[in-house]
Amino acid sequence: MNVVLKKAAERAEPVSALLALTVYLTGLTLQLTGNGGPAAQALFMAAYAFGGLFTLREALGALRNGRFQVDFLMLVAAAGAAAIGRWEEGAVLLVLFSVGHALEEYALGRARRSIEALGALAPRTALVRRAAGATAEVPVEELTVGDTVLVRPHTRVPADGFVAAGSGSVDQSPITGESVPADKTPVPDRAAALAGPSATGPENRVYAGTVNGSGSLEVVVTRLAADNTLARVVRMVQDAEERTSPTQRFTDRFQKVFVPGVLALVAALLGYGALTGEPFTDSFYRAMAVLVAASPCALAIATPAAVLSAVGRAARGGVLVKGGAPLEEFGRLRTLAFDKTGTLTEGRPRLTEAVTADGAAREELLRTAVAVQRLSDHPLAQAVVRDAPPPPTGTRTAEATGLRAVIGRGVSAELDGEPVHIGSLSYADALAGPPVPAALRDRTEELARTGRTTMLVRRGDRWLGTLGLMDAPRPEAAETVAALRGLGVTRTVMLSGDDQRVADAVGSAVGMDEALGGLMPQDKVTEVARLRRTAPTAMIGDGVNDAPAMAGATVGVAMGAAGSAVALETADIALMSDDLRRLPFVTGLSRRASRIIRQNLWLSLGIVAVLVPATALGLGIGPAVLVHEGSTLVVVANALRLLRYRERS
Question: What are phi and psi of 382, to 5 degrees?
Fold first, then answer.
């Protein structure tokens, strides 16, 4: 019932505007054909009733709250026209104003519907596997954490959760904006994943509203329907309307001063007419025309329509923008600060070099290192095992035994009866036996200078070589930084807790202007404050570890927020996917939105600046109304262009 009443209320204003236009045109036709008289007068009065109904209601509501709006000026002007017998001019004023207002609501409604359409992505029901093995279809609102739901091929995922069985690809574009479906695999330990769902990897997580591919999945629910990622996004985008932009705050303050000022100007014009002996009817008509000219209808809609359109377009592209303030501010930024680990880099070490000693074979170096590191759970050891190329087909897999670790320095083990040592240069220098060859030492130190973590490998008394590892830049990082420069970003700074050599290597690889290493979290806050003293600055990070620095920035941007409730809550702008390429998209959209807001603002104020002196010099109410409402249509159409924004290729 509430939905029906809401839809009826939404339709009432355009219907009323259409009726006002119809009766006005009918009355005007009678008047122009010489058949006017009482019938035309009655039709113009009906146009007053239909055209002024919603305008009067909104103006009275604003006055009760102590606010003056442009609607009030229109009503005063229409009442003044009626008082001097200019019913047809007062009618056209209210008719065109009501039609324009209905079009404004249509523009805002279209932007809101583009946002609300996200909420319709989630299925209404889910197929749940019961304890006995049977399945039952239940409303998604009845799902509880720990339920197992079956997701059939080419259907939408009904809830946030992790994959417990099955594998395949999932189209996550409705949530994250990713253009390529993401591969999904089951978690290795269901109980551990349920105990700590935030620790599951992106290859295990799925989100409500995304589209399953050709495989069947069993998904364990980790969030209730009201609290899943999709619901949070819809709720936060809707709440974004309340976070007004600087321009909107300016227009609100402007109206509070401007409306009483216009009323004072009208009183002054009436007084001037009385002093000069001008007929009261002429003075009053000119004062009402000035009142109409000074009513900046387009100003009221200029910013909200653009902000809502941009926020809706961003949400469809996998970016959550929390209101007009961060939207406008981000559109003006020229300085961006980036976290390194997990933002510009993948957040995990990779094997990048395998340098052999004189007389050693690369295959033996890697086979020996993998055999020993397979026994360790250290992240660097796991990177060696993961990234080393597989041995040739038919080659026997070497198996090491007796792993012993020297914390922070290296490991040793037995392989085919020989001792194997793997560790840092200081660990190698402390070993008994032959020293590290000079050429291998030089190459190891060179790798360390370029930001690599190095591991020297010795088998028995033979040095096999050095492995170099580092947290490699994301493949798209350099491309993203270049795209941002093309959009007008003039300064990029990387903030990292790693050694300065590592920071320099990564910063150089991705094209940073400045790379700062060795920073603690509080140091990042200090650096962001330093950057802000010279220019407004955005901080881009993971939304959790970098929260203090993001809070201190002009705009905080969180990456990969779809998997982090904290990131969704704390960031001003949240990139739902873990894809840096969403950053140029939101940067370009913000730039475009800022331009359109400025265009709309200058157009609406420019119209007022031209019309006020024109009406004071004799321009009538009718032409003033046509110009005003025409400018409103231009402003609305300009704002709606943001819904069709396409990022640069």
Answer: -65, -35
504, 473 Cβ separation under 8 angstroms? no
Catalytic: 572?
no
CB 606 within 8 A of CB 597: no
pTM over 0.70: no
Tokens of 320: 């959550």
CA distance 134 to 148: 11
Measure the N-to-C terminal CA separation of the chain; round to a whole number of Å. Answer: 47
Residue type, 85: G
The closest alpha carbon to 297, from 102, 518, 33, 470, belongs to 102
Catalytic residue among 160, 339, 542, 572: 339
Give the 3-state secondary structure percentages of the chain, helix then strand then coil, rounded to 5: 55, 15, 25
- For residues 114 and 33, which has the higher predicted lDDT (pLDDT)? 33
Q: Assign 4 a pLDDT band (cuts: 50, 70, 90).
A: very low
Predicted pLDDT of residue 394: 67
Contacts of 286 (CB under 8 A, 6+ apart): 269, 273, 615, 616, 618
Structure confidence at residue 70 (pLDDT): 62
Beta 148-151 vs 168-171: how paired, if at all?
unpaired
Give the largest Cα separation in the chain, rounded: 118
**Higher confidence at residue 225 or residue 1?**
225
User: Residue 1 has what pLDDT?
Assistant: 42
CA distance linking residue 118 with residue 97, whole number of Å: 32
d(CA 227, CA 27): 55
Helices and strands of the chain, counted as H and E runs: 22, 22
Count CB-CB contacts under 10 A for residue 533. 7
Cα–Cα distance, 366 to 355 (Å, whole number): 10
Measure the CA–CA gap between 497 and 549, rounded to whole angstroms.
13
Beta-bridge partner residues of 148:
129, 220
CB-side exposure of 242: number of CA atoms within 13 Å? 5
pLDDT, tens only, 533-569: 999 999 998 755 677 788 788 898 988 765 566 666 6
Angle, CA 538 vertex, CA 537 and CA 541 arms, to 5°: 140
Q: What is the Cα–Cα distance from 447 to 428, expressed in whole angstroms?
A: 16
The pairing of beta strand 573-575 with beta strand 217-221:
unpaired
Q: Please spell the DSSP secondary structure of 174-217, one letter per residue.
A: HHH--SSPEEE---S-HHHHHH-GGGS-TTTEE-TT-EE-SS-E
Mapped onto helix, strand or coil, the DSSP state of residue 532 is: helix
DSSP 161-177: EEEEE--EEEE-HHHH-
**Residues 71-91 pLDDT 10s:** 666 777 777 777 777 777 777
The CB density around residue 285, as the number of other CB atoms within 10 Å, is 22
* Short-list 359, 222, 372, 239, CA closest to 307: 239
Q: Any long-range contacts for 626-629 (C-beta under 8 Å, 24+ apart)? A: 626/96, 628/96, 628/100, 628/292, 628/293, 628/295, 628/297, 628/298, 629/96, 629/97, 629/99, 629/100, 629/297
> What is the arithmetic mean of pLDDT over 524-528?
88
For residue 237, with 0-12 CB atoms within 10 Å meaning exposed, 13-18 middle and 19 or more buried, which class applies?
buried
The answer to whether 187 and 125 have CB atoms below 8 angstroms apart is no
Nearest partner of 347 among 144, 546, 549, judged by Cα? 546
Backbone angles phi, psi at 554, to 5 degrees: -60, -45
